[in-house]
Amino acid sequence: MAYVLQVGFKMNGPFGDEMAEAFTDLAKSINEEDGFMWKIWTENPEANEAGGIYIFETKETADKYLEMHSKRLASLGITDVKAKIFAINSKLTGITRGPVEG
Predict the structure, then answer these.
(1) What are the alphabetically sorted keywords of the record (predicted)?
(2) What is the mean pLDDT of residues 25-43?
(3) Is the CA virtual torsion 74, 27, 95, 58 positive or negative?
(4) Three-class secondary structure assignment of 8-69
(5) How far apart are CA 89 and CA 74, in angstroms?
(6) pLDDT of residue 101
(7) Which CATH code, of 3.30.450.40, 3.90.1640.10, 3.40.50.880, 3.30.70.100, is assigned to 3-95?
(8) pLDDT, tens digit, 9 for 90 and up, residues 57-86
């Protein structure tokens, strides 16, 4: 069963194309994480918020990534990280065209 990791935090930028340029290497490194399937990057420049929606193969790999990512964010001065992990109902997700197989 796949799991969603939802992460959000306050950030003063960069956003948009500048964010894409600044975090390209980070994005590539995320592809190498154990159990990682895919990520949607989220940003709200007006509210100074960023984060992502991640899909991992197991709850254990989502937990492991969250622990590492929280430490990485803390090293950048970002400590108020909001995160939740959810199991994916793949049958209903498939009906609504979600790219997760059961």
Answers:
(1) Monooxygenase, Oxidoreductase
(2) 96
(3) negative
(4) EEECCCCCHHHHHHHCHHHHHHHCCCCCEEEEEEEEEHHHCEEEEEEEECCHHHHHHHHHHH
(5) 32
(6) 65
(7) 3.30.70.100
(8) 999 999 999 999 999 999 989 989 999 999
Task: Tell me if the pTM is above 0.85.
Answer: yes
Q: Please tell me the distance from the alpha carbon of residue 27 to that of residue 47, in angstroms, as a whole number.
A: 23
What is the predicted pLDDT for the residue at 99? 81
Enumerate the domain spans of the chain. Answer: 3-95
Round to whole Å and give the CA distance between 48 and 25. 22
Write down the residue that tokens 């049958």 correspond to. 91
**Whats the size of the chain, residue-wise?**
102
Residue 20 identity (one-letter amino acid): A
Mean pLDDT over each residue of the chain, to the nearest integer: 94
